[in-house]
Amino acid sequence: VLTTISYFLNEYEMHIRDKRCLSFVCEGMYTTPCMDACPANIKVHGYVILIAQGKFREALELIKKRNPFPSICGRVCHHPCEIRCRRAEMDGALALRTLKRFVADHEIELERGEPKPRVEKFRAEKVAIIGSGPAGLSCAYYLVRRGYRVTVFEALETPGGMMAVGIPNYRLPKRVLRLEIDDIVTLGAEMKVGTEIGKDISFNDLIKEFNAVFVACGARHSAKLNIPGEESKGVVPVLDFLRDVNLGNPIEIGRRVMVIGGEDSAIDAARTAVRLDAKEVILLYRRSLEEMPARKEDIDDAKHEGVKIETLVAPVKVLSTAGGCGTTAGKVVGLECIKMKLGEFDKSGRRRPIPIEGSEFKIDADMVIPAVGRSVDFSFLAHKLEIADPGTIKVDENQMTSYPGVFAGGDAVTGPKTVISAIGQGMRAGEEIDKYLNNGKVSEEVVAKTKISYPTRALVEEEMEVVETKRPIMPTIKKVERVKGFEEVELGFTKEMAIAEAKRCLRCYEKGE
């Protein structure tokens, strides 16, 4: 046991603290695989059955108990729930991400013009939230619904964090993002954009003014390649590139663009370069395609749109007009790369890439976009909080930092992860802050609730015949229309498709409840 603790400490802590087993071998600790796989702990099986019954508003309310961004997640979530879906063993996992999108979009359309929920009576306690990404806004959502006075501080001029400036419009339309953020503001959260902590207001002043503080700054700084020539003109960090595109800033796109990396931002940058009329876009990744962390559907879309993907390749030098090794004055003309092979497994669970000696080669390029990682800037903290290795804030089991009353979550604690992971962190932080300010108790919500007839065995047929039915293919716009601009690619399910897909659920919850 002592040996396994050293390798699986996080798993042991999750069993003890959260009563969750993500391997699904401890049957007493989970209701259904889909729900327990969700970082936000959404009752996935519940909203699926409600959709199957045509109860779309109730399905949406059930989702929003744990996730204020169903329409956003319905587009960009990594859907770990689908990976654990038992229907995958038959004819394909349920399209849970798209079902979430359908019910959110359907109800948003019906609710146009209807008054939005708003908190009328607030408590005396004030909470400051640093960062308006998914973690910060989810925490704000949780606390405002319980009557706390919440102020969200965002350094950029637009709220949403990396959702706003790091995800292209063809995946997440700005109107969708704006609608769901506006709902939180309408509830009663105060949003202060263009306000940088450490510059416009000090962290110390924030601690003095508010009863609790939640640090939820995202990983919005691109990691460097750390190779010669990286300062050459034409080398553009991926987050700078995506931010400029999303904010409408002028972009000088290359004719032959090399994107380095395999995460979501690398795929987003490559597909964006295609839309900006680059003649050729090549993505270089140092591991195999199977180990690429980006969503499979986005990788497939990138290929379909003309992005070439070269695996087991890593850059070793940026070539420029300044003598081949690059200076700030030089212009990119290419890359020197080396071929890789896969070795033993590393801490990430993937096989370590190893350079093959003597396999160096050169490739022409006039623009290079490194997308090899992200980091969080903690300089504004003024050394108030203990920083863990590597570059994250140290928190206890209640997400409180080393400074009493200051909590942290999202990328600031976990390092760069997914939107749904950050939402889960934010909702949990909200609960812990509530208990901290409310003598250890969880407060009741002060907004009107929709009564939900939660699906149980009594609400479904006694017998369910399981018939092999393939997962529906997501409707999309045509390739020729995609690459001309930033129109949303996925069209979503129709009402008939959503109900039929929801009925494919095997009702694993009947065993768990």
Poorly predicted tracts of residues: none
CATH architecture of the largest domain: 3-Layer(bba) Sandwich
Arithmetic mean of pLDDT: 89
Shape: globular
Query: What is the number of domains?
Result: 3
Which characteristics define this entry?
513 residues, alpha/beta, Fumarate Reductase Iron-sulfur Protein, Chain B, domain 2, FAD/NAD(P)-binding domain, four-stranded parallel β-sheet, 17 strands, globular
Concise synopsis of the structure shown:
The protein is of the alpha/beta class and 513 residues long.
Question: How would you summarize the topology of this molecule?
Answer:
Blueprint: H1 2-7, H2 9-17, H3 33-37, H4 44-52, H5 56-64, H6 70-76, H7 80-83, H8 96-110, E1 126-130, H9 134-144, E2 149-153, H10 162-165, H11 174-187, E3 190-192, H12 203-209, E4 212-215, E5 221-222, H13 238-247, E6 256-260, H14 264-275, E7 280-285, H15 296-304, E8 308-311, E9 313-320, E10 332-345, E11 351-355, E12 361-364, E13 367-370, E14 374-375, E15 387-388, E16 392-393, E17 406-408, H16 411-414, H17 419-437, H18 479-482, H19 495-502, H20 509-512
Parallel strand pairs: 1-2, 1-4, 2-3, 4-17, 6-7, 6-13, 7-8
Antiparallel strand pairs: 5-14, 9-10, 10-11, 10-12, 15-16
